[in-house]
Amino acid sequence: MNAFILSIQEIIDNLKVNSETVDMQVIEKIADEIIARKRVFVYGAGRSGLVAKAFAQRLMHIGIESYVIGETINPSVKPGNIVLLVSGSGETTSTVAIGDKAKKVGALVISVTTRPDSSLARLSDIVLQVSGKTKLMEKKSYAPFTSLFDTACLAILDSIAALIMEKLGIDESVIAERHANVE
Amino acid sequence: MNAFILSIQEIIDNLKVNSETVDMQVIEKIADEIIARKRVFVYGAGRSGLVAKAFAQRLMHIGIESYVIGETINPSVKPGNIVLLVSGSGETTSTVAIGDKAKKVGALVISVTTRPDSSLARLSDIVLQVSGKTKLMEKKSYAPFTSLFDTACLAILDSIAALIMEKLGIDESVIAERHANVE
Amino acid sequence: MNAFILSIQEIIDNLKVNSETVDMQVIEKIADEIIARKRVFVYGAGRSGLVAKAFAQRLMHIGIESYVIGETINPSVKPGNIVLLVSGSGETTSTVAIGDKAKKVGALVISVTTRPDSSLARLSDIVLQVSGKTKLMEKKSYAPFTSLFDTACLAILDSIAALIMEKLGIDESVIAERHANVE
Amino acid sequence: MNAFILSIQEIIDNLKVNSETVDMQVIEKIADEIIARKRVFVYGAGRSGLVAKAFAQRLMHIGIESYVIGETINPSVKPGNIVLLVSGSGETTSTVAIGDKAKKVGALVISVTTRPDSSLARLSDIVLQVSGKTKLMEKKSYAPFTSLFDTACLAILDSIAALIMEKLGIDESVIAERHANVE
To answer: What residue numbers bound the domain in which C88 lies?
Structure first.
């Protein structure tokens, strides 16, 4: 088998591991806090940032006010708003700096990381641990650097969005209405 | 004098020309439409896109709902919303395609361009002509390619924001309240 | 079972379907063309754009010159360069417009889409069909709108990167060397 | 006179002040370092980031390898590379954090700010002081918040690009060759 097949199989296996080991109480808590607080800012550097943006866009689609820290339309964070940060290592410079600042303005900080003992996790109010290979880990793998973490995060965050939709009693017609039509 | 001094002088001179020749009726009309319609989408490619984003961010600061087409948090354009497009040449592929699509969904299309006879200008409801050198022009200049257009656009759009603030009776304390505090 | 579990299971199932049905000749062809042509531009709108960016960043990590159309550092496309476009529906306005323009300048256009009969696929030199739910499909699903397509694309494109790494005989130490260290 | 005219006049006046007071030795030094070191990373938050991106794009146009920290194609900073940071106040969280990290990896840090006594300026190797109103200043002005700083920075950085072009003996035909043709 070539590296393509081995890589995609490893991504699937890692998703299965995550679906069995992810802390469902944390998943429920994140969904409930997003529904209750209604206003979510996300940030991540590099590919973690792309995953964070995909989640922010989905939240917008289902009617949750969401923003990407660092993009153009990024208003002030108010006390009680959610700041959700994605970093595999939990040590990314800008992500940790933003987490610190978010705590100071009174936000609820949620982090998505492989390392519950990282700087980012320690400053967070809620930590969602995702299994995957990160920059600081050495595990031999056919999926390139951080791919396991990134795909697992995307699948988990999208599935949190599905849970929020279920809790709010909305379906995809809501998304179709809000989805960008000029792009 | 070196090229730095010549370039900055040329930028200043071009700003002066624009401040004297820009169509004040169009400026007033754009400010009034933004205040009346309340929801503005912007787009531009390359440096024109950066100028468009700077305007969108300022609009957000002063309380106008604004979005950047192509960024993460970009909902659907509704009939009557404003789509403001920046293109020096008025012929940029994606900008013209987005203008066409915006017309189809019933948006009011405002274009900012040097060329009132361009494809973009022809499809627009309101055309703001800005003087400057563009990709399609040959004028000898010390300011690099498109710099005259970009700086004039930024100054003019920021000054439209100042006019909107005056019309709404708001001052900079509103901006300070809305300006990103976690970035 | 709640919507979270159902959604993540559906994402895994869709990945399995893709791993079994994806056209391996197309996968090999894309890897070979990227290695041969060395310079790749990517584009997609919305979440498809985020997936395209994740691939471009991975290509940069493994030493392939890559660019994102619409980002700041985006030089001119030369004849023979690759333009890789992601669109579930294959009908996104800006993506089709960019595909048309890319053909005109002599690029090799690769599209990643669910619909081999779409406008985008028809103008492309190579079409990679990915299974998933798209904006234009009606299939009942627990994973939100386009999530199946997006996660499958991310996994498939990352696995193409793994295949390129195998073909080039490089490992993750190359990525560690190139990965952003100031972010 | 309405706020539009007053604002654009104030922007022009501020540009004149800057053209007369900017430290030409610092301007020359920045141009020379960029030519010598050949590889430049830029960053700024909010509108300062847009100005930084405009400069990075112009550098790419004139053949200098440039990157935007936070965008997709952002490789590792090597010792001796330039990291150029824009922040009016010089106290923006992420900008200062990135400046600190850049120093640690051995980059030459250039900051563009109104405040030579700021945290950002103090950690920088070269400080370019630009006059304008910033978030931390109280000066009464008709141009909205930070507009004076942003427009002056754009004009000054574009004029540094003009100086680099003069020093390298290249003209706009180089830009036309490199400017994005698919966008």
So the answer is: 18-172
- How far away is chain A from the Cα of B61, in angstroms, using its nearest Cα? 7
Mind telling me how many Å the CA of D115 is from chain B's nearest CA? 19
| B91 part of a folded domain | yes
Q: Rounded to an integer, what distance in angstroms lies between the CA atom of residue A139 and that of residue D180?
A: 40
Query: pLDDT tens for residues B39-93?
Result: 999 999 999 999 999 999 999 999 999 999 999 999 999 999 999 999 999 999 8
pLDDT tens readout for residues A9-34: 999 999 999 999 999 999 999 999 99
D101 in contact with chain C, both atoms CB, cutoff 8 A: yes
- The CATH number linked to A120 is 3.40.50.10490
Query: Across the interface, do B70 and C101 touch by the CB < 8 Å criterion?
Result: no
CA distance D111 to chain B (A): 17
Q: What residue spans of chain A are helical by DSSP H?
A: 3-21, 24-37, 46-61, 93-104, 119-123, 147-168, 172-178
ipTM score of the complex? 0.94
In a domain, C2, yes or no: no
Interface list for C 66-95 with D (CB within 8 A): 66-77, 83
Domain count, chain C: 1
pLDDT by residue (tens digit) across C119-166?
999 999 999 999 986 555 556 677 877 899 999 999 999 999 999 999
In the structure encoding, which two tokens stand for residue C100, read together?
């048309």
Which residue out of C134, C150, C172, C181 would a mutagenesis test of the A interface target, given it has the greatest number of A Cβ atoms within 10 Å?
A: C172
Question: Which residues in chain A are contacts of D74 at CB distance < 8 A?
Answer: 46
- Give all chains having 3 or more CB-to-CB distances under 8 Å with chain B: A, C, D
Report the distance separating Cα B111 and Cα A133, nearest Å.
47
Torsions phi, psi for C18 (to 5 deg): -65, -40
What is the pTM for the complete model shown? 0.93
- For residue D181, is it within any domain? no
In a domain, A139, yes or no: yes
Report which of A169, A134, A172, A171 is spatially closest to residue A47, judged by C-alpha positions: A134
